[in-house]
Amino acid sequence: MADVSSPMDIDHNGEKPNKPNSSSKGKTVVVDGTPPAHPKSTPWVEKYRPQSLDDVAAHRDIIDTIERLTNEKKLPHLLLYGPPGTGKTSTILAVARKLYGSEYRKMILELNASDDRGIDVVRQQIQDFASSQSFSFGRASVKLVLLDEADAMTKDAQFALRRVIEKYTKSTRFALICNHVNKIIPALQSRCTRFRFAPLDPVHVTGRVRHVIESERLDVTETGLAALVRLSSGDMRKALNILQVWNFILVQATHMASQHITEEAVYLCTGNPLPKDIEQICFWLLNEPFSDGFKHIAEMKNRKGLAMVDIVREVTMFVFRIKMPSDVRVKLINDMADIEYRLTFGCNDKLQLGSLIASFTGARSALVAVAK
Ligand SMILES: Nc1ncnc2c1ncn2[C@@H]1O[C@H](COP(=O)(O)OP(=O)(O)OP(=O)(O)O)[C@@H](O)[C@H]1O
Ligand SMILES: [Mg+2]
């Protein structure tokens, strides 16, 4: 019965944290830092997950504010939102460690809304956990319900959560985490203090990746590191995953010619077109007749296994960099945005390659007219 529960009733197996659902989308979260059975197979994203708020790279304003509120025991309900791999879950786990120390496992309930969405999650698991607090930890600080991927919750569940939050505000703080804040109903948003986690600055990604490179004693060239940071686009999880995959390939293939992680290796490992391939493609787009351009690009695409959508994205970046009249540039970029849009809806690659070449043919005529 809830009203005579002991702390062990909350932490049922006495070992694991309150975590009914494991995280989804392969983002397994190791909340207590317990070493796994095979340390070598630990994903680096977990091995190097920040343990304290000081370890969290970037977001200094947010961290300082949350730290101050935690120190003053004025922690509000939180809504942390922003793109993947920017430190939202890591930050809230570090807050929990700071708040509870060794009681950490018993004092948080970690739910992943996208695993088990719906009103039952809100009504049962949260309610049970939150309501047991006053009897089990009467003198302790408030508990924390961590609701990851909250944007996957149904509207009904969100409305139900609104009531649960109100009911247990005295004993429990809620931390909602999501990528898309616009999917959280306004009534919930207004009950939380919102913090936006922006994509990480290249400087911060570089700093943290360097730390991992040194700890793992990896041989990574400076251009390899720069490519890794660029491809991760502010997502630290992506950066660490690319690094680990490539290191794995190197360890497995001792016969490989290059035993260090180069720029080319990073691009190959991620399936992204190499900068020199993009330059070659752009050269063809700007110089070759339609049929020759089509033949060359299609052949390179097949030989190297490139995705059309990656080619279009990189060619767009190229168009941003080279000198041309702004109206020609705008037209080209709009055309390529249309092509990218059609590709994401499954339109045929060959047709879209034809469109790409056709829009460059149009741009070339405009450039020749300007030059005359
Ligand atoms: N700001 C950061 N400082 C240091 N490491 C970070 C940071 N952000 C992300 N990481 C690294 O990336 C991994 C994933 O981070 P985290 O789970 O905190 O991301 P998230 O913002 O919650 O992403 P998602 O929206 O996909 O859940 C962490 O384990 C950590 O290794
Ligand atoms: Mg997360």
Q: What would you give as the CATH superfamily of the largest domain?
A: P-loop containing nucleotide triphosphate hydrolases
* Separate helix tally: 17
- Cofactors and ligands present? adenosine-5'-triphosphate, magnesium ion
Percent strand equals 5-15%
Largest sheet strand order: 2-3-4-1-5
CATH class of the largest domain: Alpha Beta
Q: From the structure provided, what is the oligomeric state, counting identical versus distinct chains? A: single chain
Provide the low-confidence segments as ranges.
1-17, 20-26, 28-39, 134-139
CATH architecture field of the largest domain? 3-Layer(aba) Sandwich
Strand count, sense and closure of the main sheet? 5 strands, parallel
What is the number of independent domains?
3
Order of helices and strands: HHHEHHEHEHEHEHHHHHHHHH
Q: How helix-rich are the residues, as a percent range?
A: 55-70%
* Integer average pLDDT: 82
Pairing-aware structural class of the strands and helices?
alpha/beta
Let me know the number of strands: 5
Radius of gyration: 25 Å
Protein name: AAA+ ATPase domain-containing protein
Organism: Linum tenue
Pfam families: AAA, Rep_fac_C
Biased composition (Basic and acidic residues): 9-18
Give a structural overview.
The chain is of the alpha/beta class and 372 residues long. The chain folds into three domains: 2-196, P-loop containing nucleotide triphosphate hydrolases (Rossmann fold); 202-270, Helicase, Ruva Protein, domain 3 (Orthogonal Bundle), CATH 1.10.8; 275-371, Zinc Finger, Delta Prime, domain 3 (Up-down Bundle). Helix content is 56%, strand content 7%. It has helices at 7-10, 44-47, 60-71, 88-100, 104-107, 119-136, 155-168, 186-189, 202-215, 222-232, 236-252, 263-270, 275-287, 290-304, 308-321, 326-344, 349-371, and strands at 78-81, 108-112, 143-148, 172-178, 193-196. Helix 6 (119-136) links the parallel strand 2 and strand 3. The longest helix has 23 residues, at 349-371. The protein is elongated, with a radius of gyration of 25 Å. The termini are far apart. The chain binds adenosine-5'-triphosphate and magnesium ion (MG). Residues 27, 45-46, 48-50, 56-58, 84-90, 179, 197, 200, 208, 236-237, 240 line the site of adenosine-5'-triphosphate (ATP).
